[in-house]
Design a protein that fits this description.
2 copies of one chain form a homodimer. Chain A is an all-alpha fold. Chain A folds into 2 domains: 44 residues, Homeodomain-like (Arc Repressor Mutant, subunit A); 159 residues, Tetracycline Repressor, domain 2 (Orthogonal Bundle), CATH 1.10.357. In chain A, 71% of the residues lie in helices and 0% in strands. Chain A is built from 11 helices and no strands. Chain A is elongated, with a radius of gyration of 19 Å. Chain A starts with a helix and ends in a 5-residue tail after the last helix. At the A-B interface, helix 6, helix 7, helix 8 and helix 10 of A face helix 6, helix 7, helix 8 and helix 10 of B. The structure holds a DNA duplex.
DNA sequence: GCACCATTAGAGTAATAAATCTGTTTCGCC
DNA sequence: GGCGAAACAGATTTATTACTCTAATGGTGC
């Protein structure tokens, strides 16, 4: 692997483990056994590295929301979408940790994140519309936006909830704990599920395991 | 006002306006025209100041949730509780900005926040139980906890949503924007409201103004 | 073998910020 | 007035960190 890519990969790893804030460029360089000068040969500054990481995140999330247009979607489709979204949030979990701080000293990233979030919320709305079309849900038109926004906030805030309210230490956070958010999501959606779907969902929920709330 | 109190008050102001991270002890001292040495005469360190601010927040939120026990509560009671909670979140909004970072380098605060959040969520549950008892809502027992948690996450994350997804600059955040979260809360509660309450709530919602989502 | 350029090393710089140290002033009180 | 303690000033220290500078290294085409 090229040094340039190793820098980004190592940065992502270290950021996820210890938070962007407490990882210096020297840490990154040391971790892959190169000199600080070398790191700065490849990237102008730390923001530049973060921007490249965000490139990946942005692209991956965008791809995620593309549902099959030629046929009805299934509950399986929906479940997979959620699962892959959580995969991404997990893989880039440092982002939603110090997000406000990061955006505060990087105007460009701030712009980009704003567009990203807006698009993400819009895509979530689309998913619900589709769920309605395919008979899984019935949501009054004026409640689609609020629901999508609530879900978005819930999903992007869940790791923060784990870290702060539950006090999970940074290095003990697991993908399984992140998965618990599915229960919360389900409860948000429950009132809008059609009868048959609700039963099926409840069975699925019982299968998965206990809620940690 | 005593210097000791002025330090805390000025810190809170500056933290709210620019974030705890970017406010140094020198800034605080300069703002109230005292020397850094003097500041450190009154407080051991920055964490000490933050702890004193948290003292206030903690106490204020605890008082908040005390509902009249001798009579049925009204929708007005509930609305006031929400309003006062938002007042507090507004007054101490710096807390929920860099919370993860703050707790990461202050073990004691981390412990305290954890207890605080747990209690807050529990209190929220109590409110909903009470709302059920008084005939305003009907929530299946197993959905009270998830609902309370969702509401808690929503309320504590709303300022972050405004700052990141909507890109509101730190110094342009207003109490009115925070108030918008009421709409989101209402949509979360809507499915569980009893008929009469739902109508009343919808009217109230229409009165308040447009949703910014 | 040599010129060229991407790549790398590593010491060094400048800025920042938390905290300390040494003293001086102010205030309550006898 | 004067004494002791609380309150305060301000320069300084210590640590950290993002980033730069100069020089070396190594591969590639000729």
């Amino acid at each position: 692997m090229k040094t340039k890519d190793k820098i980004v990969q190592a940065s992502l790893e270290l950021f996820n483990l210890h938070g962007e804030r407490s990882i210096t460029t020297n840490h990154i360089a040391a971790h892959i056994k190169i000199s600080p000068g070398n790191l700065y040969y490849h990237y102008r500054n730390k923001s530049d590295i973060i921007a490249r990481i965000f490139d990946q995140y942005e692209k991956a999330v965008a791809n995620l929301f593309e549902l099959p247009a030629d046929r009805d979607i299934t509950l399986e489709d929906r479940a997979q979408l959620t699962d892959k979204l959580l995969d991404l949030i997990w893989a880039y979990r440092f982002m939603h940790r110090d997000l406000v701080g990061m955006l505060a000293n990087d105007a460009e990233l701030k712009e980009r994140y704003q567009a990203f979030a807006t698009q993400g919320i819009r895509s979530t709305e689309m998913v619900y519309r589709r769920m309605c079309e395919c008979g899984f849900m019935a949501i009054p038109e004026d409640q689609i936006k609020p629901l999508a926004l609530n879900i978005w906030i819930l999903v992007t805030s869940w790791t923060t909830y784990l870290r702060t309210a539950l006090g999970v230490p940074e290095d003990e956070l697991t993908r399984e704990q992140l998965n618990q958010v599915i229960y919360q999501m389900t409860y948000l959606e429950m009132p809008y599920l059609t009868e048959a779907t609700r039963e099926e969902t409840q069975e699925l929920l019982a299968t998965y395991g206990p809620n940690a709330a």
